[in-house]
Amino acid sequence: MAENPMLKFVVRSQSYPEKRTVSERAHDFQEISSSFAVDSAEDQAGRCSQCGVPYCSVHCPLHNHIPDWLRLTAEGRLREAYELSNLTSTMPEICGRICPQDRLCEGNCVIEFSGHGAVTIGSVEKFITDTAWKEGWVEPVQVDEPTGQSVGIIGAGPAGLTAAEYLRAAGHDVHVYDRHDRAGGLLTYGIPGFKLEKEVVMRRVKRLEDAGIHFHTSFDVGRDATLAELRKRHDALLVATGVYKARDIKAPGVGTKGIVKALDFLTASNRANFGDAVPEHEDGSLLAAGKDVVVIGGGDTAMDCVRTAVRQGARSVRCLYRRDRENMPGSQREVQNAEEEGVEFVWLSAPVAFEGTDQVTGVKLTRMRLGQPDASGRRSPEPDPGSEASIPADLVIQALGFEPEDLPVMFAEPELAVTRWGTLRIDHRSMMTSVEGVFAAGDIVRGASLVVWAIRDGRDVAEHMQSWLKARAGTRQRVAA
């Protein structure tokens, strides 16, 4: 009788793919960890306890069949593992790289609760699909018979790309419009290469192009066409723009030269790594080289900024966050990576003013203390009187999160209803906006969130749009008859 390959968590320790040394990785934008070797992936997958109620799947927004593809991996059935993983996710190798597994699947792994260390689910997921690409198992999108219907998608980020794939597979003519010159949204221009190498994103985009999806890049809705004009071109529209408006700091001196927005800084860096000419690097305005850099914020975007600044050759990099380490929203793994790379975290601190006249020279900060819990359950930070101090800064990066842009005005569509937060208001039963035939999904509906939730929303909205398009086609046929 063959030995059971699973339940090995009692005899095998938790292991992640080995990270490159700091001296190697802190000077380039390549991913910091290699993929598992085959035997390592099988060994780690075999640690799964095959729970009757798999909390890892429950806490995955996509409800991936995690225990099942872990077992297939442990048994050496990698192609089947990939095919099962691919059933629920359009981008498993991307989620394996950038999902905060410590807060989702791995953070809810039963053997993590038992003290044995979670199964390294994300690393196995990355390994499975990277292997599938290498071996040629990733097949072209299978497109059904043409429906004669056309769909327009505004935004080429994870929600838009996911919906595009499912709607194209259903046989619709799909057009994707994006303001950037490359598809991918934040996957392309917001997330640094050391977390997600751009070839990983571009090969997904090429697969969609090969399926006949039309990408209209450098296309700004409101400038190149209004929403009303796009509605005339297509039978249905999806708004999946994400949220890009940076939250600003309100403090004296905030408009001083050298205080920049996180997304501007990250986009310039990613463009440079594509080989594009970046004027803001040439004049130094968005380049950290040789500077004392201060990043304000405690989320994953702030972690991307501090680690990018290190790689650009900053003289020093500090991160100010108003709460403590335990109450920060970003991934603890990213904090650890940043600390290894030389970033200094100044916990329980907040800026009160920026020093300098023509150019920022420093940040005046106050120490904070944690008071009573707020609505989110985290303890609210309060200034600690008499604790003000100054730290030097040549470049200050604001990484306080993102808010929606004013889409009704930008799209010249006053009938587009929004919530009090500026996100698009939808009927959650159909995911349709207040404008007939216009749907919305991703961060523009739920607010700034995770890539995996955008993929989930893209999957869900494609199903709703398909139902609506079928009903509309049926109505037309009855009228014609």
From TrEMBL:
Its EC number is 1.4.1.13, 1.4.1.14. Residues 151-458 form the FAD/NAD(P)-binding domain. Keywords: 4Fe-4S, Iron, Iron-sulfur, Metal-binding, Oxidoreductase. Residues 25-136 form the Dihydroprymidine dehydrogenase domain. Residues 369-390 are annotated as: Disordered. The keyword Oxidoreductase applies. Gene3D superfamilies: Alpha-helical ferredoxin, FAD/NAD(P)-binding domain. InterPro entries: DPD_II (IPR028261), FAD/NAD-bd_sf (IPR036188), FAD/NAD-binding_dom (IPR023753), GltD-like (IPR006006), Helical_ferredxn (IPR009051). Coiled coil: none annotated. One of its GO terms (molecular function) is glutamate synthase (NADH) activity. NCBIfam families: gltD_gamma_fam. This is Glutamate synthase (NADPH/NADH) small chain. It comes from Sphingobium lignivorans.
